[in-house]
Here is the input.
Amino acid sequence: MAAIGKDIWRAKKVLDAGKLVAIPTETVYGLAGNALNPVAVASIFETKNRPSFDPLIIHVASFLEVENYVVDIPTALSRLAEQFWPGPLTLLLPRKNNIPDIVTSGLDRVAVRVPDHPLTLELLAQVDFPLAAPSANPFGYISPTSPQHVDAQLGEKISYILDGGKCKVGLESTIVGMEGDEIVVYRLGGLEISEVERIVGQVKLQSHSSSNPQAPGLLESHYAPSKTFLLGDLETLIAEHQRQGIDFAVLSLAQTFPEIPMNNQLLLSPRADLKEAATHLFSAMRSLDESNATVILAELMPDKGLGKAINDRLRRAATKR
Ligand code: TXA
Ligand code: MG
Here is the structure.
């Protein structure tokens, strides 16, 4: 088990020594190390069991700091930064050479964001380097939204978890970059597309593909529980599993099923609020994964607002049948 606490100086000491600390953000917890130290960054990959072709986001304390690490910020993207930082937005920007290759997997662009959490902003202000931080989960598993989630999976491998409570957004950041004059969204996330479009006009959604290492969140199977996780019409799935006598648990937005024990049902938001659903998604998937059921049955959200990003995560979590 790792120590869990709010001691920024302790976190700084660990990071200064080239070791890793789990940090809270508004989206999910990150597994952070000194982004300018290739050895520290290598240990992030090792701790997560993450393939080294999957690049990392660097976290900085303010927009002003970004220019230390990038050669140019296109006007459209700087308008997004001004509007939404600190917040669940990551920008892909042409990097300077001080960013080690291992951070970007050798790509020309580096992913940058200013996270919206007071403890982590304070920590970033105290250290002399940006923090490279992927979500603090073993590669391919569900992202952590509480210190306990981090501890359960990585507690043996790291010494300190900075405790910032539960994440208030609950989905990873939205990743945006430019290709020529076009603004491209590479990962749906905690910042809604409509918010991005309100500032910069229409964007292109780059479909995720497992064969294109330029596209983030690239691996199709991701955010995945260890149990069988089936996505579809709940009435149909429930009937099918009842017929076969298989133990199941149900994950729905707001609907309850009277014939199923309450212990085996989780609602993401009883009032069908998609923001609330987003904050509960990963912890709900975890607790169902730890339940006695053999199979988890889930439904897609309405395809609007944060529902789009939630559906992206649900589809990647789903067991391919
Ligand atoms: O909300 C978040 O973004 C969280 C918190 C901790 O900040 N971080 C996070 O990191 O979700 P991670 O590593 O789990 O996901 C980062 C995604 C990956 O899919 C990666 O492929 C993509 O960002 N990415 C990072 N750098 C990139 C680059 N230079 N070019 C293209 N994609 C990049
Ligand atoms: Mg991740």
The domain at 3-205 is CATH 3.90.870.10 (DHBP synthase).
